Amino acid sequence: MVRRPGDSSLGTAPRPARIRDVAELAAVSVATVSRVLNEDARVDPELRDRVRAAAAQLDYRPNRLARNLRRQQMDAIGVVVPDIENPHFAEMVRIVEHIALERGHRVLVCNTDEDGERQASYLQMLADERVSGIVLSPSDSTGNIDLLRDLNIPVVTIDRTLKVGGTDAVVADNIPAVRAATHRLIQAGHRSIAFVGGRPEVETGSERQEGYLAAMEEAGLTPLLADGGFRRDAAEAAVTQLLAGGCSASALVVANNLMALGAIRAIRLAGARIPTDIAVISVDNPPWAELLDPPLTVLAQPIRAMATRAMELLIRRIGGERFPAVREIYPLELIIRHSCGTNQL
Amino acid sequence: MVRRPGDSSLGTAPRPARIRDVAELAAVSVATVSRVLNEDARVDPELRDRVRAAAAQLDYRPNRLARNLRRQQMDAIGVVVPDIENPHFAEMVRIVEHIALERGHRVLVCNTDEDGERQASYLQMLADERVSGIVLSPSDSTGNIDLLRDLNIPVVTIDRTLKVGGTDAVVADNIPAVRAATHRLIQAGHRSIAFVGGRPEVETGSERQEGYLAAMEEAGLTPLLADGGFRRDAAEAAVTQLLAGGCSASALVVANNLMALGAIRAIRLAGARIPTDIAVISVDNPPWAELLDPPLTVLAQPIRAMATRAMELLIRRIGGERFPAVREIYPLELIIRHSCGTNQL
DNA sequence: CTGAAAGCGCTTACAG
DNA sequence: CTGAAAGCGCTTACAG
Prior knowledge:
alpha/beta; 434 Repressor (Amino-terminal Domain); Rossmann fold; 3 domains; 6-stranded mixed beta sheet
């Protein structure tokens, strides 16, 4: 049994009006209704008003699912980040979203939780739903982008990028920044400096480690790597183990803000003091960094500029513009606070 | 001109295979292909294998947009939160997402940024796309849920709830918690206690304020309200103004963690010390609370339990289960650290 | 168990 | 400017 719009027997909600209902009420064709609603072609003003009135009267809302099928796209931008609990990415999402909404795009946020499989499945989903574009900060730099490319869905990567080329990338200049920071610790007299690293299989992880290693090597010092996997708890465990191992590290370079939290906690629990016993420098500048005890010395990333640029590129691609893939690199800023030893750097 | 699957002239990507192509290759009907792919009815094993082989050979992926239209739903759970940069909601999102994925649901995250209009437009979008259910933490408690109800899309609210009844709600027991915390400050000798509040038009905002007011009134003390709008910067400005106004507040009750950051910063900038000059208690227990200077006394919410319960309810609703709307209330836990004065409470 | 056919609700060449 | 009609790619009663 097919229910008609008017047919609202008690209990069940009335079936929503379809375009055909509007057409009938306005005494025009469905094509005309469609045109009016999409402000498409020039339609006779009188018909336009009739259609609008009919639509209003029936409380008509176009069925998006039908439109999606017909157009083979869902008209939204997907934002895929590795860890929504990381304030760095949370801020990025907010900025991207703000710009997208401003430009009339809807946005869908997906959190891959530093998991390659989840990334794959979310990208698959966004491809299946035919989003118009994707801002991706990969959990897995080997991520498969082919399906997106086949479907002509533009992707711009941000913060971290993909192994395969061909997509626009907006990244931070990690290597020199971490190298310089490590170098300054060395100049301040530190000889035993450990690196609390994030997943080396990801660009930011490997680059930050590389920067640290370069500085250590230049100074002829032995590097000391602790694996924090970009996560707070893992970093806490790694640093606890480091300290328990009788290691004599007098300084720590930490690869992101979540791990800084874990590292600091581990140091405290071990009864050591910052910066007296152990100096700390971390990447990222979350709002609480300056309020910590002691205030945290950081390498701040220009998230707003990066996110803005990424959206600019994506929107141009969505608009069909064609240009060679760009890779843009933004410098980090060293903000010296107290956790690295006052004014020592 | 219609392009056929095989027809991949240079340059353009080959059109993706459709169900009909699979059917032809496997020499069965499209109905059979559909059945095999949906593991629907019992299909003859031989046909099944043929279909699977054909699908694999053509690298067939069902067109989700067509399926969505046919089924009138997109098979995903929408998660709508007021502020993705607030670690409280970020954690909630992660837990909800984890459970959803575990149960085979895809998830779409939407951030309404404490904005009623954005909430309306995201709910509209999720309705239009026919998600199977929504976890909503409202930015605007007057939010319109009717369209969701008309479409039979279940909604459960979490943390904050809606004015209109009829939806399941999982909330924290804000009033007694804030009242008790305020009361303890009073017992510790404080007479001038200010409240840094979040948007009173939202449930958590009004309830926390109510708890504070109740305690003050019971003690015959004059309340002092500062509006922080649940935002860090606004709270910093409000507290700065409070202190500049020559107010003699010796303690602050802050309604969420973001505002605590702002309040602490304002106190520092004003040259006052915590807890000596001003004691601070805040709602929320983000990971950095214990690492602040001084460690922050907080009212912690059982986010995991709340999010888990919310998902349980939602999944039952999605499964078609019918039961009266529930409202579940979870207690907060007072965690005493140093920011309220050592052991004074 | 299997297939032919209807239909989900739009959009968009095509003709007039 | 307007309408009749085809078609987007599936799913699912219905018959056999």
